[in-house]
Write a structure and sequence with these properties.
alpha+beta; three-stranded antiparallel beta sheet
Length: about 550
């Protein structure tokens, strides 16, 4: 049966979902999303990783649109940040739409979803030996294979989807597709017995994705427009997206060394062909694409942190190996903030230590070059996928944000040190709370492990909001009182953790007050409470003013 001829132009047809500044949902074409970026609050999608994948696509386009601008990178960025357009007599701060529109026009023939020869992000004529077409659950991340009832679609059919949604999932599959066996494509010499064997998850899926959000989509795009690498050099002029290359075939590219952030933002991790009936997409041919090892791409991949692997470095004969720092689904972003911002503006060599996300280093540079106001508020947005079953299934999606002022990222470390130390204080206080819970469980004759875990969860949950508000309030000043910020956080922690401890003590009731012998000494609620109070006083001295007697000991 012949496939009906149809066209869906991504430049002019609405397919990108967003929320405008009044909170209303909108669906826009590629041209529109750039033209009206200053009127939009943020991108959205069926799942958080979808909007992240589309953001990276938009960044690739923006990069290429302004690549001919010359000069110092900070100054280039500053000019973009201050770009203004007059519309109906009103001056607005916008993206450089004329340059973007010219670039899109120059490449317009590559943005058709169903072009006969050059379909966007696809391979024309891609097929298997037996012409197998897979169901759409191979494409749609919120329909786990074999778990049709565990889906955000609440039982809705996925036998067919409209072209706009198919375009969104197409961008997503190149970014986040799980590993596992794929359809074997005719023309791919890696195929064995009709199967494409695992080459790993799609590139972006291996990252602990981070980006910075501003008040509008325009701000968000510019805040993440990193114009130089970690060596303070401009990215290669050969850093191009797939629509500026000859169309891919079924086989992997001969030279798959990425050339820069544009290449990685649009990395063709899979070979895909959408199958349609002229009105909707009804299936997909999904095969292996370009494999990419996940280490040592920190120079050109700015949207993740990087951890140093001693073990892999030894296996590599001493060559330093850094791997993307992925997110832990059960851990809120603020609790892992140290690993993301702790190494910002660190001038020492990177061997043996973590590396901060390049996008945070870029903002640090812009602040220090006076191109970005240190008091400007931003949100650090983290998103990523936790894969299970040998990375062949999406098990969970991580998505969290935290707000602060960009001064936190400047070369001056005081505010950053405050933020990092506050997380450590919270960790220590929660551990003290968990220890109390464990001691109380022992006093009543129970097992402490479960009580420890529940108390930790309760403590971190209770501190989540206070820490976010405290961090958002940190700001540079002519003569900042950093000790007062520290003391304020200590007092906040006490007001949160102490009442939870009191509740745990009360819950132990009579069995807790009677107590029992354990670990060589007698333990009851009063003893556990004294240990808890003493530990909080040690951890939070600013929250527990102490009187001293003449001998200097605590009264």
């Amino acid at each position: 049966m012949t496939t009906p001829t149809v066209d869906f132009d991504l430049l002019t047809q609405p397919w990108i979902r967003a929320i405008d500044r009044d909170g209303r949902p909108r669906t826009l074409s590629l041209r529109e999303v750039f033209r009206y970026a200053h009127e939009l609050s943020r991108l959205t999608g069926e799942v958080p990783t979808q909007s992240f994948a589309i953001l990276r696509l938009l960044l690739a386009i923006l990069h290429r649109s302004v690549t001919n601008r010359t000069g110092i990178t900070a100054a280039i960025w500053g000019d973009l940040w201050r770009t203004q357009t007059t519309v109906s007599g009103e001056t607005r701060t916008t993206l450089p739409f004329e340059e973007i529109d010219r670039y899109l026009t120059d490449n317009a023939d590559r943005f058709s979803l169903f072009d006969t020869d050059k379909p966007f992000f696809q391979v024309a004529g891609l097929r298997s030996e037996n012409n197998t077409v897979s169901a759409l659950d191979k494409l749609i991340a919120d329909v786990p294979n074999g778990e049709k009832y565990f889906t955000t679609r609440a039982g809705a059919s996925v036998e067919r989807i409209d072209f706009a949604e198919a375009a969104r999932w197409l961008v997503h599959v190149h970014a986040f597709d799980p590993s596992g066996i794929k359809t074997g494509a005719v023309g791919d010499n890696r195929v064995k017995k009709g199967k494409g064997y695992p080459i790993g998850v799609a590139w972006t899926g291996g990252l602990g994705g981070v980006f910075l959000e501003g008040a509008t989509l325009r701000e968000t795009l510019l805040l993440n427009l990193v114009l130089r690498d970690m060596n303070a050099e401009r990215f290669s002029s050969d850093d191009v997206p797939p629509w500026e290359r000859d169309p891919d075939g079924a086989a992997a590219r001969a030279n798959t060394a990425p050339t820069g952030p544009v290449d990685l933002c649009t990395w063709q991790s899979r070979r895909v062909r959408l199958v349609h009936d002229g009105a909707q997409v009804t299936g997909v041919v999904l095969c292996n694409g370009d494999a990419l090892e996940p280490f040592n791409q920190q120079r050109i991949e700015p949207m993740t942190g990087w951890r140093f692997s001693e073990q892999q470095t030894k296996k590599a004969g001493g060559e330093a190996r850094h791997y993307p720092m992925t997110h832990e689904p059960e851990r809120a972003l603020w609790r892992g903030l140290t690993s993301l911002i702790g190494e910002v503006a660190n001038p020492t060599g990177t061997r043996g230590r973590a590396i901060a996300p390049g996008v945070l280093e870029w903002l640090s540079y812009l602040v220090d070059e006076d191109e970005l106001d240190p008091a400007h508020p931003v949100r650090l947005h983290a998103t990523g996928v936790h894969y299970i079953n040998n990375q062949s299934v999406i098990g969970d999606i991580f998505d969290d944000t935290i707000g602060f002022r960009v001064a936190l990222l400047s070369a001056e470390p005081e505010l950053r040190t405050l933020a990092v130390n506050a997380v450590q204080v919270a960790d220590n206080a929660v551990y003290a709370l968990a220890t109390l819970a464990g001691n109380l469980a022992t006093a009543v004759g129970g097992e402490p492990e479960g009580a420890l875990s529940r108390a930790k969860e309760r403590g971190y949950f209770a501190l989540d909001g206070p820490y976010r508000r405290w961090l958002a309030a940190l700001k540079p000043a002519a003569a900042p009182d950093y000790d007062e910020y520290d003391a304020r956080w200590a007092r906040l922690v006490r007001t949160v953790i102490e009442p939870i401890g009191a509740d745990l003590i009360a819950s132990a009731a009579l069995p807790g007050w009677v107590g029992r012998e354990a670990r060589g000494h007698y333990i009851d609620s009063s003893q556990a409470a004294r240990w808890f109070r003493r530990r909080l006083e040690q951890l939070l001295p600013a929250a527990y003013p102490r009187r001293t007697d003449e001998g200097g000991s605590a009264a």
